[in-house]
Specification:
Blueprint lengths: L1 H12 L5 H10 L11 H4 L27 E2 L6 E2 L2 H11 L5 E3 L10 E2 L2 H11 L6 H8 E2 L5 E5 L13 E3 L3 H16 L4 H6 L1 E5 L5 E2 L4 H10 L14 E3 L6 E3 L3 H8 L5 E3 H6 L6 E2 L2 H12 L10 E2 L5 E5 L2 H7 L2 E2 L2 H13 L6 E5 L11 H11 L1 H10 L3
Antiparallel strand pairs: 1-2, 3-4, 3-5, 6-7, 6-8, 8-9, 10-11, 12-13, 12-14, 15-16, 15-17
Helix pairs in contact: 1-12
């Protein structure tokens, strides 16, 4: 962790030195404005995929000179020599663990995919569905019975089919031997306690995740929470406040909600998006995105700043109320959202106010007004503003 923080600090400290480079690069950059539609087809437009595989065509695994390319099945860990062999193996050996398109159910060759995202692309391209991603999942995708998924947090997304770093269709006890082998060979970690603390227990059907200490809740969730009788009732389950709009969202749908409704307000990793457009590598602050890029991309780039997608606003706001801090600090990324929350306090006779902070800083200095935080950003983060102009959501 100390190494990661040191690298992040070095990157942040070089911000002003990069301003000269920015000026020369900016001459060669042509700004591209992409208008995003709300329907499923527009979100997945122009993303050609091979069925069962979430990678765009042309994206291949790196081949080491002198070695035969190797692909690993995420279900049984069987090794194969090519993408085609892997896809054929999964289609034959793990057909029961695949997601299915309900609109193709009556055809001679019903469409299947190893992940929800693959089916979403199929629905958008083949069936021209003009619906939201959530609606497509709940109405047109048949879930497999086994939704177990285990991710290595030291191998950040995107998790590409055929690579190591994630395991599907098995619980932790069944997979532990392979997990330990992965951490030993890839991350040089042998201590089991360190291994389990670096695991993310996930669900293949939604965005919910659990730490190793929550493996009991994880097991209950993947076995019961997506049964066909429960899936149509999307309003069930615990909810949490969305930081971007203030609405109460079912916890298991939170990340998907942010991806659909608030993509423009997040920092995103361009490098990961180019490799796998179905993933959503996002963060709320530049520090969190730096941590992702250091862990995932290492020394791949001379500067990480030109490989981020920047949010519309570089500031956030919090409620000054003590109760809000105790119960879970209320965060927002525009004046309207924090104002909506503060109105609840005002109607109850409270005197809570919104405090603003810069999303580019390591330490959250508080500002009393939007004007003050904007002035701070304009003075302190001129180079980041230039990167944002070239790579930002506008």
């Amino acid at each position: 962790m100390a190494i990661i923080n040191t690298k992040i600090s070095q990157q942040l400290d070089r911000t002003f030195e990069e301003s000269k480079l920015l000026n020369s690069l900016k001459k060669n950059l042509k700004s591209k404005k992409v208008e995003m539609e709300d329907d499923l087809r527009a979100k997945l437009e122009n993303k050609k995929v091979k069925m069962l595989d979430s990678r765009p065509e042309g994206v291949k695994l790196e081949k080491v000179v002198g070695e035969q390319p190797s692909r690993v099945c995420p279900f049984c860990l069987h090794k194969l020599s090519s993408d085609d062999d892997l896809l054929h193996h999964m289609k034959i050996a793990h057909q029961g663990d695949m997601f299915r398109c309900s609109k193709c159910a009556s055809s001679l060759q019903p469409t299947i995919g190893w992940s929800v995202e693959v089916l979403l692309q199929h629905l958008a391209q083949q069936h021209k569905l003009n619906v939201s991603i959530s609606e497509a999942i709940f109405n047109y995708v048949d879930f497999p019975q086994n939704l177990h998924r285990i991710n290595c947090k030291l191998c950040p997304p995107p998790y590409i089919l055929g690579t190591e770093g994630f395991w599907l269709g098995t619980d932790l006890q069944q997979t532990m031997e392979s997990v330990l082998k992965h951490f030993d060979q890839v991350h040089v970690i042998k201590e089991k306690s360190q291994v389990v603390s670096s695991l993310e227990l996930a669900c293949r059907g939604c965005d919910t995740t659990f730490p190793h200490t929550g493996r009991l809740e994880w097991g209950q969730h993947v076995k019961k929470d997506h049964e066909s009788l429960n899936r149509p009732n999307r309003s069930s389950g615990p909810r949490k406040r969305c930081d971007y709009c203030g609405e109460k969202v079912v916890q298991t749908e939170n990340i998907r909600h942010i991806k659909e409704a608030h993509k423009m307000e997040t920092f995103q990793c361009k490098a990961c998006l180019e490799v796998d457009p179905t993933c959503f590598p996002y963060s709320d602050t530049i520090k969190e995105m730096m941590q992702h890029m250091v862990m995932k991309h290492g020394d791949q780039f001379s500067s990480y700043y030109d490989h981020m997608v920047y949010p519309v606003t570089l500031y956030g706001s919090v409620c000054s109320g003590k109760d809000c801090s105790v119960k879970g600090k209320v965060i927002a990324f525009d004046a309207a959202t924090i104002g909506k929350h503060l109105k609840v306090h005002q109607d109850a006779g409270g005197d809570e106010v919104g405090e603003f902070y810069c999303r580019c800083d390591r330490i959250k200095e508080k500002f009393k007004t939007i004007e003050a935080v904007k002035e701070h950003i304009a003075k302190r983060h001129k180079a980041i503003l230039k990167w944002k102009e070239a790579n930002g959501n506008t």
